[in-house]
Amino acid sequence: MPTAHTTVLAEVGRRIVRGDLAEDTVITLDWIGDTYGVSRTVAREVVQVLVSMGLVESRRRTGIRILSRAEWDDYDPAIIRWRLEGDQRLRHLHELAELRAAIEPASAALAASYADADQRTEIVRLAEQMEASGAAGDLQLFLEQDIAFHRLLLRASGNVMFAGLGDVVEGVLRGRTDHDLMPPEPKREARRLHQVVAEAVAGGEAEVARHAMTAILAEVVSDLGHDH
Predict the structure, then answer these.
(1) 191 confidence band (pLDDT: 50, 70, 90)
(2) Which domains are present in the chain?
């Protein structure tokens, strides 16, 4: 059950990201309280989170000012989610797919070199599960396994900066499914390539893992480009 805090945060955050609350607009704790029927304490907590996201700045004398687009924390999972709900959804998905295409092939290659034995076993197991759920057309189960697959590779790379992109990658994968941008059944070729990546990581073949992941993400960027 969402709390008053999370509900109001989502409402105000969406309004800023959509542009309904434009840059340099000044709002107050009282405005948040009156608009959403919450206490000053809840309003203050919401503002603290919005400040941490780079959406607003709060000053004692000037109030709470909406910041420019350039100040936002674009890697924040909530901002990704809100942007994917807007009318620029496809553009944003394309940007995120290009980010993945830059990072994940390198991550897969590093995982082939640095993954521990448990991670190598787990990546193969996940690829096999994805093949089964994908062939059965179970998109929801496939999505959860796909998220686990890509998160595991980012972690197994041994690079904490790559691992930190797990939430971003999850946001993209969920966004594609939530907004009906996935085919009704995950493509057989994409499922096969996930298995190639998994086996290459398990076998320590860095360049094979890199090339297979590059092929997966080239397909994603290309698909989004057609809708772009």
Answers:
(1) very high
(2) 4-71 (1.10.10.10), 77-227 (1.20.120.530)
